[in-house]
Input
Amino acid sequence: MPVEVRIPTPLRKFTDGADTVPVEGNSIAELLDDLDKNHPGLKGRICEDDGSVRRFVNVYVNGDDIRFLDNLASPVKDGDEVSIVPAIAGGTRSLS
Amino acid sequence: MAFVKGLTCRECGEKYEIGPEHVCEYCFGPLEVEYDYDAIASVISRELIESRPQNLWRYRELLPVENEPTIGLYSGWTPLVKADRLARELGVEELYVKDDSCNHPTFSYKDRVVSVAISKAVELGFDTVACASTGNLANSVSAHAARAGLKCFIFIPDNLEQGKVIGSVIYDPVPVAIKGNYDDVNRLCAEIADKYRWAFVNINLRPFYTEGAKTYGFELAEQLGWKLPRHIVVPTAGGTILPKVARAFEEFTRLGLVADEPWSIYSAQASGCAPVINALHADSELIEPVKPDTIAKSIAIGNPADGFYVLKAVRGSHGGWGESVTDEEIVDGIKLLARTEGIFTEPAGGTTVAVTKKLIDTGRIPRDESIVISITGNGYKTIEAVSASVREPHVIPARLGDFDELYASLA
Output
C-alpha cells in the first residue's frame, strides 16, 4: 500500500487536479523523486536545485513537520499521510 | 479608488489580479498588495487625513479596499500614551505606549487586520469568514462577523485561556478547538481553506489582512506629531505586525508625510517560543521551528508564517535587534506596566515591556532617544497568567473598627 500525499491547490495542475496522489517510497526524499517521476516538474516546485525543501514550503508526515523529524530523510511507511503545505499557511481558493 | 494595482509575489515578483489568493503558484512566496504610490501622493496629505473620523480608515488610500468601508468604523485610533512613570523606572527620557489593549471592539490589535480583511471578504462576495487563532484573532473575527451578519468559523488550540474562549463564543461563531498547539491549528486550517469556500482572514485573505496592521504604525506617527519614533519594540508571533509597522513608516516617508529620518525596530519574543530571535542571534536567515512552551499563548507560534520578513525588517532598520525573555520576566513586565502606567496588558505585552527593559539595560536602545512600546492585547482576557503572582484582597467584616485595625497593620 502506497503513501498518500496531499497536494495543495497551486500544484494540482501537475496532478490533473487531484488533491491526493498515491506515491511509493521509504523516505520523504524517495517520495519526492517518485512524485516527480509520475508528475514531471512537481519536485522543482517543492525543492530548490540543491534538493532542499524551499523556504516557503512545509512538508508534514501525519501532521508532524519534517523539520522536527529527520527532514528529507524522515522515514515514511505504508498508510502514512504526507501533506505539502505552503509555509505562508494554506492554499489558494478561487471564487470562480 | 484606483490606488491598488494588484497582488505581487514578494519573492519572484509574479503579478496577480486582486482576489482571494495569497501564495505565488510558481515559488510559493507570499503575495502582497501593490499600490500606485504616485497616484496616492497626488491626493493624500496630512490635512486630508486629519479631517477624517478617528478610526483606521482615515488612511484608506493606503488600504486595499475599493468601496466605502463598512466594517471597523470604530476600530483603531487607540491612545499613544506618554509613559513618564515607566520611563523613569526604565531610566529613559522619552517613552510612549501605543495602547491597542483598548481597541474596539475586542481589545487587541487584531481589530485592525480583521476590519480590513472582512471589508475585503464582503467586497469579494464571501458569506462565511474563518480564522486560525491563538485567541485574539478569533475574538475579533467573531465580533466583526456578528456585526456584519456573516457566518463564522473559528479554529483555536484546545488549551487557551478561558477569557479568550468566551471572548469568541459569546458572538456565536462555530467554535472548533483543535487538540494541539497553534501550529497544528494553522496546518489544519491551511488544508481546510484549500477545500472550503470561505474567507479565511489570515490564510487566503492574508495579503489584505496584513495591510490592516500598517494602521498601527500610521497612527502612532500621526500621534507623535507626524514624526517617526527613533525606536519601536514590537512583539512577534506569526510575524504580521512588525514588518507592516516598518512598511507603514516607509510609506509615510515615501509620501512625504513624515521626515526621512533613521528609525530602528526591535522584535520581542518569549524565551519559550523564540524561533525568530534564535535566527536573529545566530545571524541566520533560516527560521527553525520550535515547540512552544510559554505562558504568552497569544504569541506562542513556533512556525511563524512571516518570520522571515520580521528578520528582514529588523535587519533593514538602523541598528534593529530583538530579544526574548522568560515567563517570570513577562509577568514582571505586565505588573510593571500596570503599576506605572495603569495599563493592564496580556503576556504578549508583558513580553514587549520586558524586552524593552532588556534592550535598554544592555545598551541596544540608548536612554536619550524616543522609544515606543507596542501593546497589542488586553490583560483582562488572560488573568490566569498573573493570578498566582498578585495580592489577595484583605477580607474584613463591614465594621469601621476592623478597617482601623487593618489600616494600622499596613503602616
Notes: The mean pLDDT of chain B is 96. DSSP finds 15 helices and 13 strands in chain B. The longest helix of chain B spans residues 327-341. Residues 4-72+110-209 of chain B form a domain with the Rossmann fold fold (CATH 3.40.50.1100).
